[in-house]
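Appendix C reproduces, verbatim, an entry submitted by the partner laboratory led by Prof. M.T., so that reviewers can inspect both the input and the predicted structure.
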Amino acid sequence: MSQVSLTNSTQLGIDEIPTQPAPNQAMAVSFAAVILGCAAAGLGYLLPGLLAKFLETNAPVEIYLKDGPYAQLLGYAFTTLVVVGLAWAVAGLVSLLRNTATLQLLRVATIMVAPAAIGFVVLVWLTLFSLHNAGILINGAEQDRATIILLWWDICWPALNVLLAAMLVQVVLWRRSVVSAFTKQDGTALRGDVLLEDWRTHGKDPRARKSFYGSFVTHFVIIILIPFLLQIDGCVEAYRVPQGSGEPAVAEVKVVKKKKEKKKLTLRPNSAIIFDIPDLDDTEVDKMMEEMTQARYEASVNAKAGKLGKGGGKKGGWPEGMEDYKIRFIRLNHGGEGWDDGMNQTDADINFLHAFAKATGFDKIANKGESHSIALLDKYPEDGFPPFVYLTGNGGMGRVSSKEIEILREYCLGGGMLIADAGSAIFDRSFKEFIGKVFPDKPLLDIADDDMIYQLPYGFPNGAPAFWAHGGTRARGIKHEGRWIVFYHPGDMNDAWKSPGYSDVTPEMRDAATQLGINLVYYAFNQWNDAVTQKRK
């Protein structure tokens, strides 16, 4: 037997590759085709259901896909995966009857997998980047190219694995030992043997082959490995509360009703007819709402808040917090009408954060709005979950899955606080029904005027201001083990946070809404601190 020198070492050359039949290899490749074909068909069968579940919590994506070609194309791609996968599995079974015809059938079926898988991953890529370019929120959050690639990988890695396996099966089907097992004929090495030998020995030009390996590994690490590692912990940033200790001073907020001017009735001389005709809309309800919305909320002279925090220190902050803190305002996307109440246009959340920073001195705040789906609450670390999340709407609640209901419940019971705010009477009814599903064992309770939530850092002797009162005039909540885990304001509190021109509020109403929000954040941070203390023990 001659020896061939490759890469300055003695290795088997192409001429020494075994060409005798290898029945075990042929049987292995047949069974591999059956298993992989079933996997491809199963993937195509499950994907429509997974897509439907995804769209349940991503109403903007659902609307966008219905208006374009991608939904139909994705349906075709799913069906193609099922058909091609089944064909591949059947070809694998038939190839157990080894002859030339079944070999060709298996080769053709294996080749068919490539365009089906490639078409699927390319279509998902185009769909996701189309959503990105259109500015559609995914999971309630704005996406960049990096997060889109992560999402693409999360969806496509099973199809990419099937594609890689199909390529390997195709190479093996062109090995002489496997071909001989099917055809019962010996012969010289085939291209499958050459390719595998080149991979093993670096080929005739080791420098070129090493360059290829280097390029392959680099692309694999950047495109596949790094995104895979990043998606393990989810696409959320741990919440960082200010570290330190503090104790706020009390600032009382008084309610002062605006004095009404007495109207004079004008009469025609010598006539009993009143010509000052009242407005048709001047009903008792309108009068009551006008009286509520004209109420003025003034802080006392000593209304400057002290250093917020817990622990009695002068610096301010919370013992379980972080030096490199960032205060964020996270909205939950439930997919219903007005779920963000136009905050992207009115900057209500950012206006509140700026007011919070000015009042408290904690100036490291998020510089833009943030929102995501309820499902992402499950991705936060145990000591880095948001102390509060905000939920609102102008219409009914969207379609929230049972899994998301469970996640929201666990978030609240685990130390988080849900701040809900009614943007309309329709949302009021829908939210009450929704929160009943989240906490079927815990009713919504009226929050007493002297509750701690209204005491620090601003005192509200009459409880939460009613504002527009879409669902009554009193704030309500849900308690668990002595703490409020849900705070529900029935009167569109965030409307008073919006930039001027977007809502008809007085400066006094704006201040009161902001001060109430600061109280809620302070309360939520305290509860977060206690929960994290327990978890770190």
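The two ends are 70 Å apart (CA to CA). Additional entries are available on request from the coordinating office.
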